[in-house]
Amino acid sequence: MKNFAINVAKQAGKEIEKRFNNDRIVKVKDKSQIVTQGDLIADRIISSALKKRFPNHKILSEESGLKKEKSDYLWAVDPIDGTTNYWIGSPLFAVSISLFFKKNPVLAVVYAPAMNELYFAEKGKGAFLNGKKINVSGNTRLDRSFLTFCHGSSQKDVKRAMKIYTKIKFQSLDSRQLGSASMELGFVAAGRTECIMIPGAHVWDVGAGILLVREAGGKASDFRGKEWNFDSRDMVASNGKIHNQLIKFLEKI
To answer: Cα–Cα distances in Å, from 39 out to 9, 50, 62, 120, 206?
Structure first.
């Protein structure tokens, strides 16, 4: 299953890389979300492979919705996480594939073809970047942490994200919105950053990255500190060492 998931992610990634910075917009879902030809091609590659190999598994894809089956297994797929980055020529985009068993993530692949980076994790077996084991950072101070944030597409989520950003700036913390949740979670897992916060997190965006963070020694919860699960609305993932500080930081947001 591990090699299958990695190979499918690479196959989809290679196809979208051919169109990188030279693709066309197929439709605009709303004012902040576009769909490119690459999204649809990658979705078709991944969904077809999953249906052929695991015909009884559920599949939840950002672009093609939910394939309903009676199964404890569910694949969460974002064919291109960071489509806007991909379209404008930023290399911060990735194919994100995760497998859930009874709503718990057990396998994760995040492949960033333009950066030649492949993240992989399997429950209980650690997290890896290009075959090398990775771990979260050892930083214990929030005021010395590098934070990233993202948000869902609703006005409520955007407003909450702006509150987070404003609060960060007034407390002299540094932050970026990098535009690809799966990669930002990978950065936390690899110790490049300490945290990512997302009001309105979608399973297909964060499912793979959450397992990466946990297997790298970090923590993922909702904004109130409850361990993140399939039905959680918000998500904060960190190196674990600053997590309690983050939960306090997120009070009233």
So the answer is: 13, 16, 9, 21, 17
Low-confidence ranges of the chain (pLDDT < 50): none
Alpha-carbon gap, residue 145 to 140, rounded angstroms: 8
Which residues fall within 8 angstroms of residue 9, CB to CB, at 6 or more apart? 46, 95, 97, 109, 110, 111, 118
Q: What single-letter amino acid sits at 232?
A: S
Q: Which two tokens stand for residue 239?
A: 């190196």
Dist CA 59 CA 10 (whole Å): 18
3-state secondary structure (DSSP) of residue 137: coil
Token digits of residue 141: 């101070």
Q: What is the C-alpha to C-alpha distance for residues 131 and 119, in angstroms, rounded to an integer?
A: 8
Q: Smallest Cα–Cα separation from 110: which of 192, 37, 184, 26?
A: 184
The pLDDT, as a whole number, for residue 239 is: 98
What are phi and psi for residue 231, nearest 5 degrees?
-95, 0
For domain 2-134, the question of CATH label 1.20.1600.10 is answered with no
Q: Which amino acid is at 153?
A: S
What's the pLDDT at 33?
Answer: 78
Domain 142-249 has CATH 3.40.50.10330: no
Quick one: DSSP state of residue 213?
A: H
Domain boundaries, the chain: 2-134, 142-249
Residue 204: phi and psi, rounded to 5, are -70, -25
Supply the pTM of this predicted model: 0.93
Six-digit token string for 42: 């990658």
* pLDDT value at residue 38: 92
For position 8, what pLDDT does the model report?
97
Q: Are strands 132-134 and 127-129 parallel, antiparallel or unpaired?
A: antiparallel
For helices 2-18 and 37-53, the axis angle rounded to 10 degrees is 160
